[in-house]
Amino acid sequence: MGRRPPAQHLELPRFFPYKLSILQSTISDSIAQLYSGQFNLSQQEWRVIAALGTQPRMSAKEIAAYTSMDKMPVSRAISKLVKEELISQSPSSEDRRLIILNLTPKGLEIYEQIVPLVLEREEFLLSALSKDEQSQLDTLMEKLLKKAQELR
């Protein structure tokens, strides 16, 4: 007995989630080149530093939510960054059980060195699009994000 063909055919290279995944991976890898080599940071470590550079005084749980990362990779990144003295930990004044994280002067220095590099890379990547297309892309990504969140 032969196998019945599927009712619909999936062309993986044309499948939107696949194409988006490839784009995300390629762009992330191009950005990672900037902080992994010279600064020896993983993607998760860079995201923690970037989050604290943008929003100081966050807990690990807040960083996980802010960066859309799982708690375990955030926790591992925090442990390494504390060990490397790039972030500091202190108890919250409101809730002593809560640990608040901040960039140390050394962590802030690295953040300030990396930010111009990643912004330059972003500018290079977006230069493939006109200003109108960049605006449209932002709008379209927001629409897709909201639609995808309906499935949660």
TrEMBL record:
Domain HTH marR-type: 1-146
SUPFAM superfamilies linked: Winged helix' DNA-binding domain
Entry keyword set: DNA-binding, Transcription, Transcription regulation
Keyword check for Transcription: yes
GO molecular function terms attached to this record: DNA binding; DNA-binding transcription factor activity
Pfam families per the UniProt record, alphabetical: MarR (PF01047)
SMART domains: HTH_MARR
Record-linked PANTHER family: HTH-TYPE TRANSCRIPTIONAL REGULATOR PCHR (PTHR35790)
Protein name: MarR family transcriptional regulator
